[in-house]
Design goal:
This protein has about 180 residues and is an alpha/beta fold. The protein has one domain: HAD superfamily/HAD-like (Rossmann fold, 3-Layer(aba) Sandwich), CATH 3.40.50.1000. Helix content is about 30%, strand content about 20%. The strands form two sheets. Strands 5-4-1-6-7-8 form a six-stranded parallel sheet, with helices on both faces. The two termini are about 20 Å apart.
Length: about 180
């Protein structure tokens, strides 16, 4: 039991685009879809989430969606995308930061605000939790929160994270690595 009588839980934080859903790659960088038609859950995402969920991990999507803050995508479209994600994957929560990169707040990755928020809501032990991401900011947010970072390397033309705990090819490989690392 934790300090306030809650069982402390372990979590896997999952970036959305490039981890659970297909990122749109332009000029060697991954971008979020802006329409429902572009929103595609990756084929390996369901199995990855199922494996982690079966072992008791809380699954929390933490995603920057600056196109909402910029007015490129509506809140309604974003909600439809996330309803689709919840319908098809056993995730517990989705936390979103819509701050544009030009005016980032404490919740926008690489800041760890969304991870801290989830830890408070779900009673998560951050030091025994993981983050799976495909960008430097994902891994940096996890590092700042004390989580182990699992980096999906799509070879984007951008700065790589300094020292992820593991580098994998996709979210299913990441889930399997986490289960092995956590001895589950």
């Amino acid at each position: 039991m934790g300090i306030i009588g809650k069982k402390i839980k372990r979590a896997v934080f999952l970036d959305r685009d490039g981890v659970l859903t297909r990122a749109l790659v332009r000029d060697g960088k991954g971008y979020a879809p802006t329409t429902i038609e572009q929103f595609e859950i990756l084929p390996e995402a369901a199995e990855a989430c199922r494996l982690l969920k079966e072992k008791g991990f809380v699954l929390v999507v933490v995603t920057n969606q600056p196109d909402v803050g910029r007015g490129i995508i509506s809140e309604e479209t974003l909600e439809k995308m996330h309803d689709n994600l919840k319908r098809h994957l056993p995730i517990d929560d989705i936390l979103v930061c819509t701050d544009p990169s030009e005016s980032p707040g404490p919740r926008r990755k690489p800041a760890p605000g969304m991870l801290f928020e989830a830890a408070e809501i779900w009673g998560i032990d951050l030091l025994n939790s993981y983050i799976i991401g495909d960008r430097k900011g994902d891994i940096d947010a996890g590092d700042a929160a004390g989580c182990r970072g699992v980096f999906i390397d799509y070879k984007y033309r951008e700065e790589k994270p300094r020292a992820p705990t593991a580098t994998v090819e996709n979210v299913l490989d990441g889930a399997r690595w986490i289960l092995q690392d956590s001895h589950l």
